[in-house]
Amino acid sequence: MKKRLSLMLVTLMAFGSILAACGGEEAASTDTTTPTETATDTTAPDETATEETGTDSESAIGLTEAEDIATGNDTALARTDSAIIGTVAPQGIFNPLFHQTSYDFYVDYLIFPSLTKVKTDGTYENDLADDIKISDDNKTYTFHIRDDANYSDGTPVKASDYLFTMKLYMDASYDGQSDPLSWNVVGADEYNKGTATDISGIKVIDDKTVEVTVSDYDAMTQVNLGGIAPLSEAYYGANYKQGEIASVKEFNTKPMGAGPYKLTKYAAGQEVDFEANENYYDGAPKIPKLIYKVTTDTTNLAMLQNGESDLDNITVTEDNVEELKAAGFLDVNILKNNGYGYVAMNNKNPMFADVKVRQALTYGLNRAEVVEAAYGPYAEVINIPQSDVSWAYTSENIDPYDYDIEKAKALLDEAGWVEGSDGIREKDGKKFEVNFSATADNPVVDALIPIMTQNYEELGVKLVVETLDFNAIMEKKDRGDYDMFFAAWGLTPDPDSTVYITDGAQNNSGYSNPKVDELYKEGKKELDLEKRKAIYAEAYQLINADAPEILMYQRTNMLGINGRLDGWDVSPYKDFPLSLHQVEIAQ
Amino acid sequence: MEQPSLNRTEQLQEQLKIVKAESPWRIAIRRFAKNRLALIGLIILFIMAIICAFGPLFSPYELNQTNIKDKNLAPNAQYWLGTDKLGRDVLLRVMLAGRISLTVGLVATAISVVIGATLGAVAGFYRRFADTIIMRIADIFLALPTLPILITLGAILSDLKIEPSKRIYFLMLIIGILGWVGLARLVRSQILTLREQEFMQATEALGLRDSRKIFRHLLPNTVPIIIVSATLGVAGAILTESALSFLGLGVVPPTPSWGNMINAANNLIDFRKRPWIWIPPGVCILVTVTAINLIGDGLRDALDPKMKSR
Amino acid sequence: MSQYIIRRLLQMIPTLIGISIIVFAISQLVPGDYITATQNPNLTAERIAQLRALYGLDLPPVQQYFVWAKNMLVGDLGQSLQHQMPVTKVINTYVWNSFIIAFFSFVFSWIIAAFVGVFSAQFQYSFFDKVVTLLVFLLMSLPSFFIGLLAIKYFALDMKLLPTGGMTTAGLNATGWAYIKDVGLHMFMPVVVMTTLSVGGLTRYFRTGMLEVIRQDYIRTARAKGLKERTVIFKHAFRNALLPAITLLGFELPGLFGGAMILERVFNWPGIGQIYLASLNLRDYPLMLGFTMFLAVLTLLGNLISDVLYGVADPRIRLK
């Protein structure tokens, strides 16, 4: 018993990183990549990189190419017709309607193409659709599916499959992670409630053309509608009845789609094997066989080094970067992560209601030191809740909140918190004592706690720290029973979000600013990119000044890729599987 | 089963009288003091405790002090045991960690031994109803999923706003309470057979009270197994502590413990490149476990009623 | 005896009901549910409500319990939220992978512990005994992931004798003997490490048990001349020494199916331990509860078996 108990408990340690990943750290393991996240805006920017400021830390990020792929690389070079991709275990839900983790998504990318797909710069292009027409009132979308698009069983992809797939999404028993009723498709509610057997807003014009009408549009409408990957009605729909989607799930481990690869074997927790789909409309993929092998972060780096795998996501640490580069035959691609870490302050707590207090706590924390300690050059302090590779990013009129203890002290004095006899500030007889909850075993938290404790002590603020299970922190948050906690958000390519909207579903800090609410609403409705840029810039400036939370850092992800594989096209927005079909094995 | 002859009953009474003549505890102390290895164990443990308690007072470094410039340094004149990834002095952290880990290991084990031995002995001695109740409770304890319970407890302590630095006491209690079942079943199994042996018939004949039978005559016979269980338990508790910290039950970083120091070196690179991060806490646990075991062996020899000759 | 077994089996019913209530209550007390654990940034409040209703999380706890308990009676443990398939199927997919390494390490560790324990006791305080003792303590002082890493570093990375992890060679698609050989090669390291870890504690118990026997032996030899009935005591003493082993044996039954969370992770073994842990972290309650109840049944059975075996080892033990 003793043995079992301690084993179970110590496991938590090993699992700490995953615990954190469950949302604390950008939801790496539970990244719910619904169609919303896959495609981006139509009217794309063409000058994303105009504001690059070539600082020193910038140089650590980006691609470092392999020096010599022939030396010490025999194991991998021996695989002349296949590539092994290391990945965290998928859950075996190979269906874009139901998948919940990025790792299932990695599989689905290869099997289920959607009407539109994302490009490296975060813009999008046609994929399965070769023509998209939008009516003048932005409420009717006509998609034409490529004439040469066939499923891997040889049958053509039809417009009616799109309708079928939409029916599945709108079904009352659909329990996947997408929110299809929010797409405002005409007739969706009726289908969902069972009062109609068809979705009136979706018309199949001919075999390859489908027309979708929405009751209301916003910037996300085309993203949502174009993000659908049609499922073959003949294959998936055999036993489907309205209101009973269970029969569709039975195909979760036997997926069949129109993508570049077809699944040949799935061994749960071990590997997923693929074979090139000869029928693929964009030309047969250049690597005949593909294997997704399950790896863990204890050994995935070693497996890349000794050629057991060709590609893997490696945790970014200075050690790991150094090791990968030292191998010589590996490409090392360090990409900005779509997400950011922050320290939430309970804005509804009178203590943090005063903007000066929130600003003081931001100025008074040496964020640069925390980030440097946790990630070295591979993460950056941020000051707005947006990735600096996004088109919505701005640095104009943004206060960088550089560490300034004197300014922080002055702000607290102004706010009426004056130092007491014991060095702790007080106001109206109340001591400035703050409870801070964080998930443990996170590189940032390890560095944050000692530095924050020390910084705030100097400021005259007593920090009481506890480490807690991630869900326990989230529950405290939901109840509003907290002072401060550390967490992280994942970012969708579109800046639309509910994190800073009054009572928004994701608003963790209780922040409320009517002007910000209005701007977010306006930004969502606006379709012109330049106008949206201006709107979000203004919103970010307001949020920056209000300091509703202490924004901490944007970190990076790293792909280690064997140099023998060429032709990648990856970016923070375009995951590696999206270019796998064009990758070649160098001879 | 042959009835014990008069001759043997007398002999047994004789034995019991000898035990009566000199208090068993005095015999135990006398025997323990004669056991050189056991004394060495005690001295080692004592020295470790002293170093951990007072060593940090002489350190030029502080607990919350990080120094990124000096991170991951190998042992040198300035940092005798090197520094960790935040540039903190490993020596100071090992000493501070010892305070937590030694206390947790010993107290938690003591709790589970007391509960486990008592309940196991009661169940094995009375059998029937007491056994059914105690063992079914033990079954339930064994079957309950530990992690969800601990997560819940962590959240409750947090909601009750129990000061994080005080939660270590709850931690010891929890590890102790969760660990009793194994020992209880082990002790019970031995009592079940011991109670059937002749010397117990003698205690019956002498009209001894149940509590005396259990604690004076039955439990001392199970001491060896208790000691094995306890030595395994100390190491387990020390390593378990670090896991509980994640759930808001243990120490809060940056407070170190031997368990969380070892766990910080959880990848192949640290393992290969920076042995000074994991060797010191590992050695400390090893030395503690060894010392406790030496003491345990001494205790067993001292308390074991069957040992007459040494 | 058969009467005792029947009564114990009947006692299992209320015990299991008790466990199911407590376990379910805990799942209600644990902070968070599947929705909060996954933290999907795209869900609106309405969709969250819809999903909770679809998952059955919106019912009052008592009703949820009865739905769950009723389904369990007919062998339906519900649907795993994260795997989107029946819990029984999830368990069945992974539990056998855990079982094979647990089984082999169980067999090896008991055989080795018995031999080492006996030798170590026979030559107490000898060089052999001291080395074994120190080794056992060394293994106890390091967390298991650490010992796993050590093995990987030396045997897989430095010497390249064994694969770094996983259960099969990627893309090999072997069948028949080739498959068995491949799995055997992959399970070698996890089995060795698991054996090493569990053999330590077991050795201590066996050694102590045997020391008892040997001491009795001395007494017997010393008094052999006159008191032949001492052989009886010796017999009982030996059985006395066997009892702890039987107790530990009972604990092994759930252990065989429970999975080794840390080592499965370190060795990338597709076992149930990791899956269970993920179900807990993601608050996939149907899977977590189902697997807990599965282990609970095994735990009760294991303890029943050891109680029955006590009587076999020592007929004088009368459990009623």
Automatic annotation (TrEMBL), chain B:
Record Pfam families: BPD_transp_1, OppC_N
Protein's cellular compartments: Cell membrane
Membrane topology reported for the UniProt record: Multi-pass membrane protein
CDD domains reported in the protein's UniProt record: TM_PBP2 (cd06261)
Record keywords, A-Z: Cell membrane, Membrane, Transmembrane, Transmembrane helix, Transport
Residues of the ABC transmembrane type-1 domain: 98-296
Annotated TM spans: 37-58, 100-125, 137-156, 168-187, 218-239, 276-296
InterPro entries reported for this sequence: BP-dependent_transpt_permease, MetI-like, MetI-like_sf, Oligopeptide_permease_AppC, OppC_N
Recorded family membership: Belongs to the binding-protein-dependent transport system permease family.
Protein's name in the database: Peptide ABC transporter permease
Automatic annotation (TrEMBL), chain C:
InterPro entries found in the cross-reference section: BPD_transp_1_N, MetI-like, MetI-like_sf
Membrane topology: Multi-pass membrane protein
Compartment list: Cell membrane
Keyword flag Cell membrane: yes
Transmembrane segments: 12-30, 94-119, 131-156, 187-206, 241-263, 287-310
Family per similarity comment: Belongs to the binding-protein-dependent transport system permease family.
Name this polypeptide is given: Peptide ABC transporter permease
